Amino acid sequence: MTKKTISGLALSVALISGAQAADVEVMHWWTSGGEAKALGELKQSLAKQGVGWKDTPVAGGGGSNAMTVLRARVLSGQSPTAVQMLGFDIQDWGDQGVVANLNQVAKQEGWDKVVPSALQQFSKYQGKWISVPVNVHSTNWVWGNKAVLDKIGVGVPKNWNDLILAMKKAKKAGYVALAHGGQAWQDATVFDGVVLATGGVDFYRKALIELDPTALSSDTMKRVFDRMAQLRGFVDKNYPGRDWNLASAMVIKGKAAFQMMGDWAKGEFLSAGKQPGKDFVCFRTPGSQGAITFNADQFTMFKVDKAHQQAQQQMAKAVLSLEFQIIFNKVKGSVPARTDISGERFDDCGKKAIADLKEAVNKNSLVGSLAHGHAAPAAIKSAFYDVITAHFNGEFSSEEAVKALVSSVKNAS
Ligand code: GAL
């Protein structure tokens, strides 16, 4: 009997027994192969508890489309039960008085003790838990096809020059050196790692979190844009508009050598049956080692009627339960949103991600991803998106991009 049948059976048993079997409506943007597989683990975990699942997917990496649909739903008084959400967006919703209070389940489950403080700052609004963290992703990663790297005779690049050299060799050998999707959120995801690799974590904090005009207009920021222009020279002509998971597929199939993307890309490699070390390599954006640009997916819980509150609480509890955290994050490519889970059941990339997170927390080199809403609020994030994408598409020189960034960020603040 398949897992699905069992969970379906559990749900029907619950219905027959008259147990409280409300459902939860979940809005999210996990529509790729790897993402859907990970989400399936949550659906099954809830079905076993007799909680039904109304799926509301809103395609579009990085979640901007989902946030647009959410605003319409809340305005029409039809909030979903739970919504996948990132960083500062959670705080914006906390302001609106439409989210649920999760303090009771947080207390009984001991979330304050096990959830990293870097996540709690986004999960809580005015001291109240309003969102349950699902994972910790990070964006300063590069994914390489092992066979391609072996064929062109390069090892894992340790510094920026090695990376550029490897890309040149790949291009010369007829591969797409850098698989990329020309969408603002993807350009910005690459930018996260390039800022960290070029200026270091203190510069990243000053420029992208404190929005210090001197840092934003510095020679270091110009060098960041110069490096983004270098990368632009390694993408293929069909990059505009490509979805991120199709870029991952280019590396998976050996058409491309590298992709610079958050570790949700690992979920695509795993769901394609690929193994780290054998089929692909994962390494930090060269020059950014020892630091992490993170983004944690969370389910923000919205106010629902009494009939659905128990199901909502059950979902919140399931999401941060120990076993689910391991099963889900192994498939998703992220690491657990709890500090009490070791990496022993994770693959080598997962083990590295868990170790890197611990190191970054201890060294205070954990910074929020700008691209995924953990460095600055949405309006500022969009200002960065516009300038980064315009530059990547050749509309700005590096000097012009630096000037545009300073003025756009100032106008959006
Ligand atoms: C991020 C999210 C990931 C993944 C990615 C691509 O914002 O944290 O879980 O969904 O977008 O869509």
Automatic annotation (TrEMBL):
Family designation: Belongs to the bacterial solute-binding protein 1 family.
Protein's job: Part of a binding-protein-dependent transport system for a sugar.
Sequence intervals crossing the membrane: none
Record Pfam families: SBP_bac_1 (PF01547)
Major subcellular site: periplasm
Matching InterPro entries: Bact_solute-bd_prot1, SBP
Subcellular location: Periplasm
GO cellular component: periplasmic space
Domain of life from the UniProt record: Bacteria
Protein name: Probable sugar-binding periplasmic protein
Signal peptide: 1-21
Protein source organism: Spartinivicinus marinus
Keywords noted in UniProt: Signal, Transport
